[in-house]
Structures are given as C-alpha cells and as structure tokens.
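@channel anyone free to eyeball this complex?
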Amino acid sequence: MDRTAEMERLVDRVMELLESKLSPASQHPSPPWPAEPAAGVAEADEADTEAGGESRKVPNPRWEEGMRELLSSTPARIGVWRAGTRPLTSEMLKFRCDHAAAVDSIYGEVDPGLLEAFGLFTVETRFGNTENYLKRPDMGRIVNEEGAALIRSRCRMKPQVQIVVSDGLSANAIDDNLRDIYPSLLDSLQSYGLAAGTPFFVRGGRVAVMDHIGELLRPEALVLLIGERPGLVSSRSMSAYMCYRPRQGTVESDRTVISNIHRRGTPPVEAGAYIGAVLKKMMEQKASGVNLEL
Amino acid sequence: MKLKSALFGTTYHFRDVKEVLAKANEEKSGDQLAGIAAADAKERMAAKLVLADLTLADIRNHPLLPPETDEVSRVIEQSVNEKMYAEIRNWTVAELREYLLRQETGESDIRRISRGLTSEMVAACAKLMSNLDLIQAASKIEVRTHCNITIGQKGVLAGRAQPNHPTDSIQGIKASLFEALSYGIGDAVIGINPVIDSAESVRNILQETKEVMAKWQIPTQNCVLAHVKTQMKAIRQGAPADLVFQSLAGTEAGNKAFGIDVALLDEADELIRREGTGTGPNVWYFETGQGSELSAEAHHGIDQVTLEARCYGLARKYKPFIVNTVVGFIGPEYLYDSKQVIRAGLEDHFMGKLQQLPMGVDVCYTNHMKADQNDMDNLAVLLAAAGVNYLIGVAMADDCMLNYQSTSYHDIATLREMLQLRPAPEFERWLVRMGIMENGKLTPLAGDPTLFM
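replying in thread with the prediction:
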C-alpha cells in the first residue's frame, strides 16, 4: 500500500491543484465520485440508480433518515445488507459486473475505426502480447524497430507539441474518451498558438514510452493520452501525461499528469482544454512536472 | 558447502547461496522480471535439492547482503540468540522443515528455535514447503499481542476496519466504519489510508476515530496509515494515536526509497511510547509485500521471498501489535496470477509467524492481475485455517480510495461462523453488549450501520 498508493495520492493532488487553478470552481458542483458506485450496472440501466431505492436494502434500519445520510456520504458499498453472513445476490452481481468491465478493458482492443477517423497510424512497443505487457513493463517503454522506422518516416521532426495516444491498461478509456478529448485538445493548442506534429497511436504503451518517442522526434513537449489501470468505479478512465522535452533518463517527477478523465470524472472535453493551457505554461517556463508552476 | 546437484542426467551448478535461494522459489513473475528465476521446472527442482542439503550455518556464513553494507542485515544479525543458533547450526534446511512439521514439536519448541534463526533461513525453509506445509506449520504458532486489547489467541480471527474515503471526508469514513462495526469488524484496528498526507489531516482523522471509540466505548485501537514522519508530526501536535504505522522493505536501499531508515523508526518508536495513546506494550503496525524492493530497484539480485522474510526480521525489532503483507497490491509484474498470489500469501504468513510476528494478511488483487474475488475467497479460507491473526475488512471488498479489492466485512463474518472462530474476546463482549453478536453469531441487528448514529 506504499508507493503505488502514494503515487496515486500525488496524482490526485496534482489533479486538484490543476482543477483549482485552471477552471472555475462552479464547473465542479458534483462530488468527485460517481453518484452510483456500480459503473457497469449504472451504465446499463441509469434508471436503477436512485439513492432512495438503496436505503431499502437494510430491512428495518434503526434510523431510516440516518441511512440516507450515510449512503450519500461515500461511494463505498455500504448499507448493502446480507443473506446470513453473505452479500445479497444483486450486490454480489453488481460487484462482479464492475470487475468484468475492468478486466475486459485490459484485454480489449481500441476500435480501429476510431483511430482511422482521427488519422492516427499505429505502431507497437516490444510488448508482444497482453500477458507479457503485464509482466514486463520495461518492454512497453520501447517502440519496436518497425514502429520506430514508421515514426521516423511519417512524422514531422522536432514539432512544438507531439500528441501520442496509447491503450495502456484500458482500451475502453480510449474508445470512450478520444472522440471528445482529441478535437478539444486540437482547438486549445490552436487557440494558444501551439503547432502539433504528426499524431499516432501506440499499442502496448507504458507512460515512459514518452522518452523513447522523445528521442526519436525531439519535440518541445509531448502529451500522451493513455488508458489508466481500471478501477471498479470506472474502467474507462484516461490520463494525460505531459512532459517538456522528454528524453532518455527523464524522471517521473518531470511529468505533469491529469488523471481520472472520464464522463463522471474530469469530462474529456474539459480535459482537452486544460492540456492546451498546461502545455502553454510548459513552453513559457521550459519545465514540467514538479518544476512547473501552474 | 555443496552447490551442485544432478537431476535427470543433467548436473546443475549454482554460483552461490543467493542463486540457489532465487532459483528454488516457486514461479513468480517478479523473480523473472529481475532475471534471477529458474529457467525451467527442472532447474527449479535442482535448486531445491541443493537448498535442502545446505546447513543453517552455510546460510549464515554466506550472507546475501553483508551486515557491513546494509542496516537491515545488521538488525537481523543482532537479533540472533547465539546459544540457540549453536543448537541448530548443523541442521540442514530439510531438517528444519521436518522439525517444524513433527507432531511432537510444540509451539514453545518453535518459539525457542526461532530465536536462533535468521530471516534468510526462514525464507529457505519456506521454499521447501508445500502450501499445506506452510498452513500447518504456521497454525502451530500463536503470537499474541496487546495494544488496548489482546489479539492473536488461538481460535480468534480479528479484522481491520479499513473505512477509506476518496477525499478523506470524515462523514464518509464514519459511514464505512459504522458498517464495519455492525458486522463485528474492527478489533484488530480502525485503520485509515489517508488521501492527503498532511499532519493536520492525520490528526483530524485520529481525533474523529478516537471520538467514535470513546462515544461507543469500543475496545480497539486507531491508526492512520500516512508516512511515519507525518504521523510523528501529528502526534507531536497532540493527535491521539494508539498505533504508529509504516511500510517496510527488506533492504536499506528499499527503505530509503520509502523515506525511512532504522534511526527514524527508532525515533518514532520512542515518540509513540512517550506520547502515544495505546496501552501497549505493542504499539506498531507494519505493512510489507513481495516485490517492493524490485520496484524500487533496491533488490541487490535477491529474490522477493527472501527479501520479504527480511522485512519481518526488521519488523521484529519493534515488537509490533500487527503486521500484514499486502499480498496482491503491487501488481502482476511481481505476482502474476491467483496461483502466485495464493502462494505468496501463505509464504508471507508462515515466514512472519516463524519470526514471532502477529501476522495478518491483506488478501487482495488489482484489476490488471489475473485473479478475481473467488481467488480471494480461497486464500482467505486457507489463511483462516493457518491461524492468521487478522484480515482486512473493506465494504464489499471494494476499496473506493485505493482502487483495489480486498476482503469484505461479510467475508470475515463468514469465516468466523463457518470455522468456529471468534472476534478478540474483549471486542466480542462489546459486540454482545451492543446486541450485534450472540454466542459467536451475528444477531438480526447486525448489518445496520445506523446503530451507531
């Protein structure tokens, strides 16, 4: 529960900072968790998500009003009641639906039509297959030789901003969010007067693949839109990692991240606009990550 | 010291004890990622054959990481009782395994020889044991500890209430805590992982959990699992902490990556004994997990089972109240699937107990691991049979802050009823007073969190 959790906390804090500095508070009236914890079921049937229905699970709570108060205070799966000491069938199935969505997003493939629609060509890392991708994070950080050749032949060298998209740990995250985030990102780059290079898609990428691509194309700044490790609350969450002059030897604290991009987190259209603003500051300050003043 | 073995017509030569220990491990993706695992099943067996014939003195005389260069090695060396070591130094690892498993070897016999063992010997033994060996040997060892109440008795299965919240909302934390208590969970500790690692936030959560404990007179202990430095700051500002927490690694470099060293732990130990609110004598909570040293590039080519055993060697110095491995949290590059997680959970529990630690286990997985809740059900039953001191209780096993799945309030309640295990005695008496439990079974009131409003 150590580093990963601390990393996630860090990421969350960076997010909070970004949100507070980059957007008016009024744009975030809702709590930072979805209204209904069971993503899969909620998405299948929005009508089932009334909080009033939830409070009826415990048959005779000592305090009915108090139960509603508890349920509205946390996305945790509480007030769920039991059959003997086991969970009720509906709760157990809801949990399994959310896990199924999370697993499928790891083993899924990004819709090729979507990539085509945005004119993204595809390269691969050395990951080989999903099993190896999970076991060997190092292989997801290097574009394979064929891919590197393709990048060199098709991309503009030394662009101001290089955009890269990768499935990472969730193909669903790309399928769900790219259509919204990508046009808004291009718009915001344009409005800040930033020129984008030739974008492409990396299958089997890890965050640090930014450094290899940085070596290949030598951009001023790079933004990687990548699928996050799926949680049960959302299996469709995307992160945008940004770095000023990513190169071999770049350390994690040099990257700036906006995480939790999905319909019920940071909306993708909004995220696209933030990214442009962050990149603009990176260019001005010639820095990113912990060295960037936002 | 013999470092070669012949198997199926091939002779296998191993360079040193470090290589034998690594290759004798059951298959783990983390050892493969480190490039130190056996190449195939036959080489693994060849290493186990060599390991079985090594003596305990061979292992001690050929340190993997010399005490001169690593402070965790120094702590482990200094804890060895030389008289007891002298009695067993000529045992082979095979003989150590059989001694632990023999019917006439009782709990106090094991406690005695454990004082002559180093963490590396304990790890070596685990590598020669089957899953059922690990369960049976561990089940013989009772480690009782006391903070505000006693846990660890034979027949007791305690639970940590882990009522985390994605923004540290006190109302939200309390809501999950009330749910936990209504299922009889929370005797090991009320332990919260904070989102915000600041002294102010830690102090606030400690105060609020203490208030709930005082209002309902709950016999348990509280803890906030921030970095130890943050907790120390909060305690110095007057925060009521019964336990102090820290994650441990099995090497000095690994601990450096966690931002700690032995001097800092000593300082925290002194502070919690002087200014903590726990009765004691046991006032520490540690977490560990196979793979953390490799992920910090601080493994020195040593396998993850041996490094995990060394975490326990370090933990032992502080006589903790509770220790658990967070077995499936670090990711599939260290433990790939449910088979590896189940094995690691049983190894860790055994290795901790043999070093006289009050071992619990966070039976858990992330969504990119090839495992699901059924696998957690399996491991939880195996550990309950092995006499695990406590498990982690999360609402429906889904931690909405850390984004991983563990075991649920329902799961701990089920294991207790099915395997005739009970909450910690003082806590059970409280549950009876609250009308939640009767004769070791949950009453119809159980499962209603509004009991505490």
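from a first look: The two ends of chain B are 66 Å apart (CA to CA).
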